[in-house]
């Protein structure tokens, strides 16, 4: 076990190094840099090349690529991600500001996904190949195919049409500061994002339930005269839940940093929007830092899940 | 008929009936697919419908996607006074650009912010989605075959190093990788397809590698090797034909995802320029979504229905070709 964990950690470090190198290279390949992009709105021909050179020197962009790379990797290894070009603040404090919003949204999305998927997946499995199952699976197929910006737009249309509430995207309150204000702001992105998550979770739960319902211990439970309800809730659901919970944990990890569309649409200053803007502005340190941190979260969650799995289920063996 | 029966049938055919070959075999298995996989057939019908739209766009669309329409000016006055003109400079023109008209017999889906026919644009938009979906999926599968076969067949350090790169690509949030790649050169359709093909590589490589590993463990591969067949021959005669089904599954399941990816980056404003894109249309429609939601509704609906079609088709193909995966 110990040996396995050490090997996985070392492999993860190697993967993170490749990711760091890829993002470094990709950013340098992108046309323009922060200094040029600054003046992109103005007429490029009229700008003194010297102005750009001075700006580049200030940002350290005039150094040879290899030196820039060495400094980036060396600093990142010491957990120093540098300063954002735009705000001149450390990348860590930028992340510290953005992360709570992304985690809020991610947790809300997964909560919606889970609380809808649990009953829906159960019904679908218990009523397999009867009309409730068909209807629910049909909805899930539609939900998985709908782009999140479309479902969010439809929700906006409905809210505006029936004047349900005012969509305020200016205030940006945290949920612990102003619960009602934050909910009004989050409710559409959370349901739009939750829809796709629901469809995935529901399909997984359904297929797990169908597998478990055929197990011997379920038949035994029924044979000893247990009523259907405790059989489903106690025996079947409990055992079908483990993979579902795993997937949900992984979803929270991947959601942070990948909800670019929803964060853009609803002006949520989270990690995804910050990442999108930083790529657009060629804010190298910020993009590099954000990509490294989101990748780290994903890779580490994967590792923790694998270890937990082995702890919870002794049948799983390490190779 | 359940999926397991479908798997057994070909064996019975082999033993008792002389099997039709060539095109007749293809038509035969196609018929059986339609008969046994109703949802898959529905998906195929949806996909074919959009193909027809894309091919027959000049006929089906009724108008050019770039044609700007005019509508009568409700405030028109034949002889406007100076004060009228000061209030509304358009008072003197009998016709105005027909922006944001609601759906009517003339404009089935209405017109957009620039006075163009939304129905025509939705029809023409199917071209980009199909090109991108197929192009990216072909690229990703082709790259996946090369890398996956190398990795699964030679194993050893090639496998180890290659898989770490695949790990890294996969750990990279897909949308972020895509955002980086599409901005590398000018945003054309070709470059978008290439960028999305690269994003698909980790998944295709993994699946192909798993397939190759499974096939290589078979006795007939060992037998071929023991009679002195070269690596190339084993690969061409034994491994590749046997992963053909896996390739078809990977190919068809990816298409829907690539269509959604293209819509997403177009929505974010970094998609291909100078083409009609459904994702971009949803974004443009948001400008006046309170008064004129039609553009967002129809363009997004088109994305969702095309993706539903490809997803149904892909799922059915997977169940049909590889019954072990049913219900996953």
Description:
With about 325 residues, chain A is mainly alpha-helical. Chain A has a domain at about 105-270: MetI-like fold (Orthogonal Bundle), CATH 1.10.3720.10. Helix content of chain A is about 75%, strand content about 0%. Chain A has 13 helices and no strands. Chain A has helices spanning about 1-30, 35-40, 50-60, 65-75, 90-125, 130-145, 150-160, 180-215, 215-225, 230-255, 260-265, 270-280, 285-310. In chain A, helix 6 (about 130-145) packs across helix 8. In chain A, about 35% of the residues are buried. With about 325 residues, chain B is an all-alpha fold. Chain B has a domain at about 45-65 and about 125-325: Orthogonal Bundle (MetI-like fold), CATH 1.10.3720.10. Chain B has 13 helices and 2 strands; from the N terminus they run H-H-H-H-E-H-E-H-H-H-H-H-H-H-H. Chain B has helices at about 5-15, 20-35, 40-55, 55-60, 80-85, 120-155, 155-170, 175-180, 190-215, 220-225, 230-265, 280-285, 295-320; strands at about 70, 95. Chain B has a two-stranded antiparallel sheet. In chain B, helix 3 (about 40-55) crosses helix 6 (about 120-155). Chain B is elongated. The interface of A and B includes residues 23, 147, 258 and 260 of A.
Fold blueprint:
The complex is a heterodimer of chains A (319) and B (328).
Chain A: H1 2-29, H2 34-38, H3 49-59, H4 65-77, H5 91-126, H6 131-145, H7 148-161, H8 179-213, H9 216-223, H10 228-255, H11 260-265, H12 271-281, H13 284-312
Chain B: H1 3-16, H2 22-36, H3 38-55, H4 57-60, E1 70-72, H5 82-87, E2 95-97, H6 118-154, H7 156-171, H8 174-182, H9 189-216, H10 219-226, H11 231-267, H12 278-285, H13 294-321
Antiparallel strand pairs in B: 1-2
Task: Give a quick set of tags describing it.
heterodimer; A: about 325 residues; mainly alpha; MetI-like fold; 13 helices; B: about 325 residues; two-stranded antiparallel ribbon; disordered N terminus
